[in-house]
Amino acid sequence: MDTITINIKPRYSETDQMGIIHHANYLIYLEQARLEWLNQLGFSYVKMEKNGVLLPVYNIDIKYKNPIKFGEEISVKIRLKSLPTTRVVFEYEIVNNSGVLCAICDLTLVFTDAKTFRPRKPIPEFLKACEQLF
């Protein structure tokens, strides 16, 4: 499992007046894919938090290529860009059901100590699982 793809059917409430999916909803779609990626790796935010680790967003770079229109189903592809250090970087592609590229994204999270809010290394089990992807 180095790349996974999830399918999402955007809701009408996620559109703007023109029937186009509002750009802010892309962040929700990215998170859905990231949660599924973690689950398939055998981890979750709950497991990380129980181990004293938080994963706040450090950077998001989204390039919007084509709009997602209401009624289109989309596929969100996610993969780990590099081995985690104190940061973990993901690459995403969002494609509509016609195969048109709608957006690409790089998203960086920082492993953070839940008590001190200082950057830290990932938990060893997570790092080991990620190393097996490369």
Explained architecture:
It comes from Nonlabens xylanidelens. InterPro entries: 4-hydroxybenzoyl-CoA_TE, HotDog_dom_sf, YbgC/YbaW. Keywords: Hydrolase. The structure is a single chain. With 134 residues, the protein is α+β, with helices and mostly antiparallel strands. The termini are close together. It has helices at 25-41, 45-50, 124-131; strands at residues 3-8, 53-54, 57-64, 74-80, 87-96, 101-110, 112-113. The radius of gyration is 16 Å and the shape is elongated. It contains 3 helices and 7 strands, in the order βααββββββα. The protein has a 5-stranded antiparallel β-sheet with strand order 1-4-5-6-3, covered by helices on one side. The chain has a single domain (3-131), classed as Thiol Ester Dehydrase, Chain A (Roll), CATH 3.10.129. Strand 5 and strand 6 form a beta hairpin.
Reconstruct the topology from this structure.
Blueprint lengths: L2 E6 L16 H17 L3 H6 L2 E2 L2 E8 L9 E7 L6 E10 L4 E10 L1 E2 L10 H8 L3
Antiparallel strand pairs: 1-4, 2-7, 3-6, 4-5, 5-6
Keywords: Hydrolase
Pfam families: 4HBT_2
Protein name: Acyl-CoA thioester hydrolase
Helix content class: 10-25%
Average of pLDDT = 94
Q: What's the CATH C level?
A: Alpha Beta
As for the number of domains, it is: 1
How many β-strand runs? 7
GO molecular function: fatty acyl-CoA hydrolase activity
Pfam family, one: 4HBT_2
Keywords: Hydrolase
InterPro entries: 4-hydroxybenzoyl-CoA_TE, HotDog_dom_sf, YbgC/YbaW
